[in-house]
Amino acid sequence: xxxxxxxxxxxxxxxxxxxxxxxxxxxxxxxxxxxxxxxxxxxxxxxxxxxxxxxxxxxxxxxxxxxxxxxxxxxxxxxxxxxxxxxxxxxxxxxxxxxxxxxxxxxxxxxxxxxxxxxxxxxxxxxxxxxxxxxxxxxxxxxxxxxxxxxxxxxxxxxxxxxxxxxxxxxxxxxxxxx
Amino acid sequence: xxxxxxxxxxxxxxxxxxxxxxxxxxxxxxxxxxxxxxxxxxxxxxxxxxxxxxxxxxxxxxxxxxxxxxxxxxxxxxxxxxxxxxxxxxxxxxxxxxxxxxxxxxxxxxxxxxxxxxxxxxxxxxxxxxxxxxxxxxxxxxxxxxxxxxxxxxxxxxxxxxx
Lengths: 179, 163
Description:
The structure holds two protein chains of two kinds. By secondary structure, chain A is an all-alpha fold. In chain A, 74% of the residues lie in helices and 0% in strands.
């Protein structure tokens, strides 16, 4: 079902629940991995995903169709993830210079972790980036978004996002080559 | 969404190693997580609206009455005090001595004759007493009475000389 059709059906009480179920099925995996790349653990990602879909349920009726549903969903998921991260930071009070190490340890704690695999080196390299660069890199590299779409999600100019992405990609490559 | 080729071309120029890495997620995920993922939206439970009973209306009326009373009393006292202050101020500035001096004897006589209090029986008695005192000479007063008067009205007692 196309996004437009989902919105139309969601706004009719008879088809609302069905439209919502379709929307969840269509986007749950993309949103889950987007969230997971930010919060890292599965349990946290699951909680944030639930909250994201609740926000979507509450806000979809007032969604303005002049923007893409896809970017609107990502925007909600990003905001929810960043709010979650902020809460975690306040609770744990990890010093800034130790953040990368804490995140790397979370990656290494994964049951599938294999230090020799390039995919895992990539994951470790991403954790060395500043938060905003991590977000930009993930949206472009994994979610294959255009800079314009990213711009709508992150409220940053396409030019700045492109510069940020290039910078991040170079740093990651360098990290992988050196480790 | 952007074409994967475009992204790969971009990577080839900035970080070619990243182009070769498999982007399939490698992190742990519970089996059949997405198949079992269910979003159950709980129906919004609206809390019952409880209407406030006007049980304490009398308190409002009593408070209003007290406030009105205080305001009226305050206004009354303020107005009264202002008048009195004005009157005090007015009479305080009058020089009565010069005002009386400007009056003619006839006016004074007319005024005095018109006021009963001053020309009444009480005033007559005072005048009579003064006239009576004026008729007595000091020789007629006994020495003992004079001594008694002086003792009562001087700091140092005066004793009768014994001859």
